[in-house]
UniProtKB/TrEMBL annotation:
One of its GO terms (biological process) is DNA replication, synthesis of primer. Its cofactor is Zn(2+). One of its GO terms (molecular function) is zinc ion binding. It comes from the Bacteria. This is DNA primase. Belongs to the DnaG primase family.
Length: 659
């Protein structure tokens, strides 16, 4: 509806901003000067004890020096009442005694009929409330008492009872002069197919009035008392007043509570909403007999940017959540999303409240998961991905879902999160690093990650060992030395990470802390190399990179001395990976040969062991050269006594002394 020129100016001249704001705040008498229209109060938009909220009544504007909220009377009403602009205009026009502009005749006629229908509905609300106090409603009162509803709660929610019988409500409304077409038009009665009087829509049911955002009764929900009734819950048919796909139970009060900062909770039914509100969760609503529609979702987002969908923890509740995801994905916008709180053990919010109290519900709401994680759960739960084909099927399914998102920025972030979850599923369970990773780097892109709270993963060497990583000079130290050079090289030149991703993935990491760092490099470096340094510091602690890079054998490496030089990094990595693979293969060959000796002695085994011994000699010479390069004092490969004795015995067996 468009407003005629000058209407808003006239409205602003008729209302006083201080009167509008004064209904929501307590003025600070010491700072305020009423005569000059200079008023101060604690801000209604954020919690504070000092009066930083200023109203200039003469200019008609307010401003908070704490949270920077500002605007005029219309803006104040839209913010505090959580209503739209036109609704704010209607509210202020009513207070100012200013008649709203007339609509065209047809629109006015339609509005007048809607007003009459709302009056009929109000009469029905009163009739049902009175019936709940009669003897015929004894069983209904007992049921409500068992559900924990006090008499005060029954009054607050205007709960009533439709007695058994065909024309109880019809006769009552007709006796008050209500027109037959209005009773039928409000959905309170249905015409008879046999030519008799119309009969009541609701019979032998507990009645829940449904009101729109403005507080008008527009429909009813009825809970059957007869366990054999075909429909346990029955809503009013759709009418000129009631469109169930565009209505929410407890809409108006929940909208006001959400405007005051209360989290918006979406439950499944009337009793859940009543229980939640009575338990302290004031901004709670429910759809009306159907899954959440697109219109209802837009209504929810107008109330809160991130509603919490609180669903029963049973199969039906989970199915409803999954359907909602498919409907919501194309509608997502920056700052508008959903979180899902799944109730435990098949309970609904009402069950959990009565069994464990509001604290237990709050815990579930605090743990509500973002939509991307529920989407991932749907696509992976109960499935086995033990073949490339099954993994490819998962990738295809997730891609199809993410394509539904219209906003390119949100689509990218969903892709990033799914890629990270996929990484955890297929690669994140390596025994060398998974525990350390979970403890030190729980997530990178979502809000659930824990900030760094401990020491750096790559520990700083003590002063007595800084000159050499391998002061003990055993084979494990040599492997760790090579691992640290590899990691330092890819961090210095992250452009090569994609090229060597498979090599890094196969890197077993003798040092578990290197495994943690390797996981971070793979998770971030492939997709966002520009963020690699920041993410390592965030996840593994300040000083991590400094401690790694200042190790002497790392600092003198060509890959570290020439950061960003892709060709140099490739040469370093090719050499280090080749030596690591050779050492790994040698260990496997020696282990297999030793096993063969224990089971069978023949020429083939002798030949294999001879080859292994020669490889060992070459490795010793190679490591001696490497140690000289890294300025390592010890020029040999040091073994412990048992290893040396075993190896010498094997050599004697292959090449016995000529003496």
């Amino acid at each position: 509806m468009s407003l005629p020129p000058g209407f808003l100016d006239e409205l602003r001249t008729r209302i006083s901003l201080s009167d509008v704001v004064g209904k929501k705040v307590m003025w600070d008498q010491r700072k305020s000067n009423m005569a000059k229209g200079d008023l101060w109060a604690p801000c209604p938009f954020h919690h504070e004890k000092t009066a930083s909220f200023h109203v200039d009544d003469r200019k008609g504007f307010y401003y908070c020096f704490g949270c920077q909220a500002k605007g005029d009377a219309l803006k104040f009403v839209t913010e505090t009442e959580n209503v739209g602009f036109m609704e704010a205009v209607e509210i202020l026009a009513g207070e100012a005694g200013l008649e709203m502009p007339k609509r065209d005749p047809r629109a006015q006629e339609k509005q007048d009929r809607r007003t009459l229908l709302a009056e009929v509905m109000e009469q029905a609300v009163q009739f049902f409330r009175l019936q709940l106090k009669t003897g015929a409603a004894q069983e209904a009162r007992s049921y409500l008492d068992r559900r924990g509803l006090t008499p005060q709660a029954l009054d607050r929610w205007e709960i009533g009872f439709a007695p058994d019988g065909w024309q109880n409500l019809w006769d009552a409304l007709r006796s008050k002069g209500m027109a037959e077409d209005l009773i039928l038009g409000a959905g309170l009665a249905k015409p008879s197919n046999k030519g008799g009087k119309p009969y009541d829509t609701f019979r032998n049911r507990i009645m829940f009035p449904i009101r729109d955002a403005r507080g008008r009764a527009i429909a009813f929900g009825g809970r059957a008392m007869d366990p054999n009734d075909m429909a346990k819950y029955l809503n009013s048919p759709e009418t000129e007043l009631f469109d169930k796909g565009r209505s929410l139970y407890n809409h108006g009060p929940a909208r006001s509570a959400a405007g005051r900062g209360s989290p918006l909770v979406v439950a499944e039914g009337y009793m859940d909403v009543i229980a939640l509100v009575e338990g302290g969760f004031a901004s709670s609503v429910a759809p009306l007999g159907t899954a959440i529609t697109e219109n209802q979702l837009q209504m929810l987002w107008r109330m809160s940017p991130e509603p919490i969908i609180a669903l029963d923890g049973d199969t039906a509740g989970l199915r409803a959540a999954m359907r909602l995801i498919d409907m919501a994905l194309p509608l997502l916008e920056a700052g508008k999303s959903l979180r899902f709180a799944i109730m435990p053990d098949g309970k609904d919010p009402d069950d959990l409240l009565r069994a464990e109290g509001a604290g237990a519900v709050q815990v579930v709401l605090d743990r509500a998961m973002p939509m991307v994680k529920l989407l991932w759960q749907r696509e992976t739960e109960g499935k086995v991905f033990d073949s490339p084909e099954r993994k490819a099927a998962l990738d295809k399914s997730l891609r199809e879902k993410i394509k539904l998102i219209r906003d390119p920025s949100i689509r990218k972030h969903y892709g990033d999160d799914v890629k990270e979850l996929r990484w955890q599923l297929f690669r994140g369970n390596r025994p060398t690093a998974s525990k350390g990773f979970e403890r030190k780097a729980n997530g990178f892109r979502d809000g659930t990650r824990a900030p760094w709270r401990g020491k750096s993963v790559v520990a700083s060497p003590v002063s007595t060992t800084r000159a050499s990583l391998v002061a003990a000079a055993d084979e494990g130290a040599v492997v760790r030395m090579r691992e640290s050079v590899v990691l330092a090289t890819v961090i210095s030149t992250p452009d090569v990470i994609t090229e060597y991703e498979s090599n890094l993935d196969r890197l077993t990491c003798a040092d578990m802390e290197h495994g943690v760092l390797r996981d971070v490099v793979l998770r971030i470096g492939v997709d966002a190399p520009e963020r690699l340094h920041d993410e390592i510091e965030y996840a593994l602690g300040p000083g991590t990179l400094e401690n790694l890079m200042r190790l002497r054998h790392v600092a003198i490496s060509a890959g570290v001395r020439n950061p960003g030089d892709v060709e140099t990094a490739r040469l370093v990595l090719a050499e280090e990976f080749a030596k690591l693979e050779a050492a790994k293969g040698l260990d496997v060959e020696l282990a297999e040969a030793a096993e063969d000796i224990r089971s069978l002695e023949d020429e083939a085994v002798t030949w294999r062991l001879g080859q292994a011994a020669e490889a060992r000699n070459q490795a010793v010479r190679s490591e001696s050269e490497d140690r000289a390069q890294y300025d390592i004092a010890d020029n040999g490969v040091r073994m412990n006594r048992d290893e040396r004795d075993s190896f010498n015995a094997l050599l004697d067996r292959i090449s016995p002394s000529k003496d």
